[in-house]
């Protein structure tokens, strides 16, 4: 059970670990990896975590967490900057009451304890079905280590059907997930830049067109029109391999059950070497034709540049 205090709004959630994706592995449905029975209390000043076997107080400050919060949508994106955060939020979260602090079970892989980046994105259901918290964990070399997805529902409510009835590892499931993304998506975005980069807020109208040609190649055009300025267009091409979409330039998207996907660079170290920014993305298509996205952008030093919330509809 999770008790949330999100800027004065008290809500009790029941948490379950929905899926785990390890780099180089398929989507997991190991029962042990689906257990999350730990109490977490979200405060304005950060996270503290308590469990029956271990107690750890983590009152965080700006040196340990960088957060982008969207109060109207209740969405947030944050980056953990301490190993203690990963240890508490993820290790205890995955193992729950089975965690004794000793070695992990043989059939469970714990993410790297010295990650280069741990990014959490949280999206609330537009239909009142709780929320999804998704974690990108990049290993010390800047390559994907683990993707974790937690579904947290309000106490006493039922888990929505799209999140419980899904298939894993089948060609038909992969095809359905890709087809659901194809087409034209239009919407609105809100970008909040961090204090280091001016603490500004920018809104824009957006349109994304994703197509697949007769050869199976993916073609994506992204248009963004900021208020008072012109329209910018970004073109991507790539390919699909089951649940993995790979785009030119080294960006990958892993398709997950429940209408979700998570995007990340294939190798962050290349962006750092070229002094380029990079971004991590979480998308939740809760119902056909309607989705939310959170994009967290970083500079070449690994500092959060901005967080962007997208609300889009398929047309």
UniProtKB/TrEMBL annotation:
Domain DUF3598: 60-156
Pfam families cross-referenced by the UniProt entry: BFA1_C, DUF3598_N
Domain Biogenesis factor required for ATP synthase 1-like C-terminal: 178-315
Name the record gives this protein: DUF3598 domain-containing protein
Higher taxonomy: Eukaryota, Viridiplantae, Streptophyta, Embryophyta, Tracheophyta
């Amino acid at each position: 059970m999770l008790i949330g205090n999100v800027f004065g709004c008290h809500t009790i959630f029941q948490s379950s670990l929905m899926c785990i994706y390890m780099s180089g592995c398929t989507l997991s449905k190991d029962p042990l990896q689906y257990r999350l029975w730990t109490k977490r209390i979200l405060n304005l000043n950060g996270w503290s975590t308590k469990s029956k076997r271990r107690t750890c107080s983590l009152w965080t400050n700006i040196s340990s967490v960088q957060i982008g919060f969207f109060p109207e949508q209740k969405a947030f994106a944050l980056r953990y900057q301490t190993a203690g955060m990963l240890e508490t939020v993820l290790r205890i979260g995955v193992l729950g009451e089975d965690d004794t602090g000793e070695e992990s079970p043989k059939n469970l892989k714990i993410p790297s304890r010295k990650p280069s980046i741990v990014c959490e994105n949280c999206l609330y259901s537009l239909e009142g079905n709780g929320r999804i918290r998704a974690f990108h964990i990049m290993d010390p070399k800047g390559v994907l280590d683990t993707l974790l997805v937690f579904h947290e529902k309000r106490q006493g409510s039922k888990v929505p059907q799209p999140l419980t009835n899904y298939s894993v590892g089948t060609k038909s499931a992969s095809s359905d997930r890709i087809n659901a993304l194809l087409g034209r998506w239009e919407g609105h975005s809100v970008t909040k830049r961090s204090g280091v980069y001016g603490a500004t807020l920018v809104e824009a109208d957006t349109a994304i067109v994703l197509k697949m040609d007769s050869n199976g190649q993916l073609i994506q055009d992204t248009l963004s029109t900021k208020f008072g300025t012109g329209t910018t267009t970004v073109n991507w091409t790539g390919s699909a391999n089951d649940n993995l979409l790979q785009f030119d330039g080294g960006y990958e998207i892993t398709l997950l059950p429940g209408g979700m996907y998570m995007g990340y660079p294939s190798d962050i170290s290349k962006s750092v070497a070229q002094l380029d920014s990079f971004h991590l993305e979480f998308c939740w298509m809760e119902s056909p034709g309607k989705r939310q996205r959170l994009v967290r952008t970083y500079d070449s030093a690994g500092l959060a540049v901005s967080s962007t919330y997208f609300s889009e509809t398929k047309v």
